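can u do me a favor
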């Protein structure tokens, strides 16, 4: 087993736990649909985070070509995955069940958006490190797309506005679709 394979096991476990948490949360919503108040903005964020996780899992493969692994690179990728898993963890309660996902979302929103700011900031570092070690150049539109999303998430962590959070959730969904269609990594 080479270094990439060894590290990818840990990254995959973290991401798998995040997906599991989201799937179990969705199943809980379905099973308790008679007593659960669903919030469409929350559902869009679930989709956004699932897209983040799958795009990161897919893009992580670009690290397979790195020959010289270091602890700083390992901790960057581990931290990136850990923060992404924590974001997923904030979308559903860890213990018990929720009956009002709108109220739940607004109890978590500062942490939810704050962690996304940290995660996307780590993404910027990860993209720059990938370029510095010769794995992939920074995509042409990367900063043009990413910086406004970071600013939008930062505002989302401060402002408790359902209209703003709804528009942000939909904007990030469009960002994810555009990013996947134009910049995303082809590992074939």
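np, heres the sequence
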């Amino acid at each position: 087993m080479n270094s990439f394979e060894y590290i990818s096991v840990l990254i995959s476990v973290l991401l798998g736990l995040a997906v599991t948490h989201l799937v179990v949360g969705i199943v809980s919503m379905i099973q308790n649909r008679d007593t659960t108040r669903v919030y469409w903005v929350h559902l869009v964020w679930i989709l956004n985070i699932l897209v983040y996780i799958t795009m990161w899992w897919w893009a992580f493969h670009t690290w397979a070509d790195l020959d010289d692994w270091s602890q700083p690179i390992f901790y960057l990728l581990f931290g990136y995955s850990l923060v992404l898993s924590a974001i997923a963890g904030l979308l559903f309660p860890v213990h018990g069940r929720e009956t009002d996902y709108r109220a739940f979302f607004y109890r978590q929103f500062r942490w939810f958006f704050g962690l996304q700011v940290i995660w996307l900031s780590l993404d910027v570092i990860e993209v720059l490190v990938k370029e510095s070690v010769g794995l992939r150049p920074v995509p042409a539109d990367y900063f043009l797309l990413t910086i406004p999303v970071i600013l939008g998430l930062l505002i989302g962590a401060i402002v408790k506005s359902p209209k703003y959070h709804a528009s942000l959730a939909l904007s990030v969904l469009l960002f994810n679709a555009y990013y996947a269609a134009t910049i995303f990594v082809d590992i074939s």
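The first helix runs from residue 3 to 31. hope that helps!!
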